[in-house]
Amino acid sequence: MTSVLQQLKKRRLALDLKQSDMMLRAGISRQQYQRLESKGNPRLDTLELIAQALSSELMLIPKDKLGAVIAVLEQKASDQTNDPTREGANKSLSDDPWKGLLRDD
């Protein structure tokens, strides 16, 4: 499983956003965001701001439910992979954990 910081970066790139775009979207400077992506240890309120800026939600999933959540996400990704109109449909869920979760992907 990828780290939260890796997921944030993948999501930002999937939305075709630059680190400097986060200033307007999340209210933090490019330098702050760059530091967060590279070695960050963000506060929870900062993560919430960034998630909102990336049209995302933070979730805490109990370990005993993680398998079920991943199965649902993989099924959703599989359903979209079978749709030939979806661009980038050959990416796996582990490559892109945000795949298909939001309509702007």
H-E order: HHHHH
Mean pLDDT: 82
Any idea what the shape is?
globular
Helix segment count? 5
Strand content: under 5%
Proportion in helices = 40-55%
Uncertain regions spanning at least 5 consecutive residues: none
Structural class designation: mainly alpha
- Distance N to C terminus: 20 Å
The number of strands is: 0
Structural account:
- The structure is a single chain.
- The chain has 105 residues and is mainly alpha-helical.
- It has five helices and no strands.
- Helices cover 52% and strands 0% of the residues.
- It folds into two domains: 4-53; 61-105, no CATH class.
- The two termini are 20 Å apart.
- Helix 1 (4-14) crosses helix 3 (30-39).
What can be said about this structure in brief?
The chain is mainly alpha-helical. It is 52% helix and 0% strand. The chain has helices at 4-14, 22-26, 30-39, 44-53, 63-81.
Question: What's the topology here?
Answer:
Layout: H1 4-14, H2 22-26, H3 30-39, H4 44-53, H5 63-81
Helix pairs in contact: 1-3
Short key terms for the protein model shown above:
52% helix; 5 helices; single chain; mainly alpha; 2 domains; 105 residues
